[in-house]
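Dear colleagues,

For the upcoming journal club I promised to circulate an example of a predicted protein-ligand complex. I picked one with pyridoxal-5'-phosphate because it came up in last month's discussion. The inputs are reproduced below in full, followed by the predicted structure.
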Amino acid sequence: MQLRIPGPTPCPPQALQAMTMQMINHRGEEFSEILNSITGKLKQVFQTKGDILLLTASGTGGLEAAIVNTLSPGDKVLAVSIGVFGDRFADIAEQYGAEVNRLNFEWGKPADPEVIGKALRSDGAIKAVLVTHNETSTGVTNSLGKISTIVKEFDKLLLVDAVSSLGCINLPVDNWNCDVVITGSQKGWMVPPGLTMVSMNEKAWQAYAHAKMPRFYWDFGKARDYLQKGQTPWTPAISTCYAMDATLDLMLDEGLPNIFARHARVAQQVRDGIKSLGLALFPQEDYASNTVTAVNASDKIDVPKLIQLLRDEYDVVIAGGQRKLAGKIFRIGHLGWVNDNDAKIVLKALTEALPRVRK
Ligand SMILES: *Cc1c(COP(=O)(O)O)cnc(C)c1O
């Protein structure tokens, strides 16, 4: 089967094989070796010297953890949103009592760094900025480097949802001064769901020292203390850790520049193929994501029918649109364990299926 949704993504045999291993004591020496190995390798992919915490949760758990460990109720937060996941990050902050100023951009477009700068200039009390690096719902990658430059001119804390970009699209966490960066195992990491990984730099730990939002399971102070002993505060998803240890080796063997180039190349093939089928991309093309392609179905294509047909007759699984984009777009995930041939297979299936689902 071609699982071409933007997470969960297919896992290579090395990951699946690793997951067949027997359980071990999560307070014992073998686990501490695995945890240290994973954390060390993650630092290379995050391109950071900061701390990386491994939490047992999906990506949303990581987003929630990032917020409750750095903010207090009543803190002013600028939530930059270009789609569903930007809205979710804002919702979490609001739920925990932050005073959220929502800066929404049109879906399909990237966030404008200058507009972010203007918002920061007009309200000096803003403490933190929330931003999505790659908006999976619209297939848009923000100019995170430019956004971080502006946010740092104003010396604000920067929290980045990089769930569907890290490990696929370049994100030099330290160079771009991203204080807290969140990702999830089932996206570009070629690992089943179960783990979220969060980086914390010095500025983020300073924020932690004053953050008063309620937290127990998510407490990063506990996670940091236990990490020094080679443990996690609570029982971790051990099998997912086995898989992650294995795929991180694959990633480092391939090398970051090669991984980024492969994602860029496959994404370009998908975009070119879509256009040659007479379809239009949903996002503004110069910001189109290298991990997920959103295609405008306009009024021409019956999206639920297309998804069903691809699944039933071509063994290809793609995603529809979320919220107000339901029925209006379809999305092809090409992140993690993906190569040129996968793009070809999906495009061939689309070529055959599309004439049968035209409205
Ligand atoms: C997948 C995803 C998440 C987290 O989703 P979970 O289902 O909780 O793992 C968050 N942000 C983005 C951009 C995503 O693509």
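Two points we might discuss: The chain has two domains: 13-253, 255-356. The chain has a mean pLDDT of 98.

See you all on Thursday,
B. R.
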